[in-house]
Amino acid sequence: MKNAAYLFISFLFLLSPFLVKAQPFVDIVNMNAQVFGIKYKDSSRANSLATTYNGSVFIPKKFVNDNMFLFRLSGEVVQLGKLEPYENLYAFGASVGFQFVSKSKNWKAAVVAMPKLSSDLRDNISKNDFQFGGTTLFNYVANDTSLKIKFGLYYNRECFGNFFVPLAGIDWKVNKRLSVYGILPNNMRVEYKICRNFYTGIGYKNYQRSYRLGLNDQNDFVRIKESQAKVFFDFFVWKHALLFADVAYMLKYSLIRYDDQNKNEVHASSVYAPMENNIVFTFGFAYRLRLD
User: Fold this and answer.
1) pTM, to two decimals
2) What is the rounded average pLDDT of the residues 20-36?
3) Cα–Cα dist 95/118, whole Å
4) What is the chain's Cα-based Rg?
């Protein structure tokens, strides 16, 4: 069972976790890697490295009335350490939902179920490794279609308990070159189109999740909180084939182990401990369809 899970994860990390986004494009395929140099607040701990691999495949199905079936496979591998053996965390899921469109086309409502497995995979998979959640998102399109307003609610049953996040965002095409889009508190971007193939801008990303540890770690869990301010560069090398890169300052990167029973912080691990802010680099590939 464990070996089969590793093989499945190795495939799925090439297929990012499902994040709610408001944006003028759709990524059918997205693969990326994020590299972050870890400098611990405790000077007695050796500096380390965090590399996160994300991937997703998105399969929409549009119907005659503009209603749409939504399906996404996603995977993540968080690799900690500079030398083997690494401390690895894994997550993968299949998000399934449906988007309903009003007769006037001014309103859209998306309902998405988001089950996933989130674990270090050191033991056989159990019910403790699974998380269940979902998102409801409403979308109002102004008559001139240059402004879309979004609001909704995200929920997930994390290792630390029920996690609810109210959502509010926009997708605003200011002019032919400038766009502002995103959903807070998750993400926001100000994008400028330099030419037909090249986009750049500034952005903000805020994301947290949790992973179950194995029996040797008393079934404790790790909670990651990260927020970053970035400069991004998107370049279409051929039709819809996109190469992208971000350079960001990590405003917060908290990677802490917690006791499963009392939900208290555990600092016994040499890896899961409070750390300083630092620079983070992201690069990747996408098959992207622009909607503007």
Assistant:
1) 0.87
2) 87
3) 14
4) 20
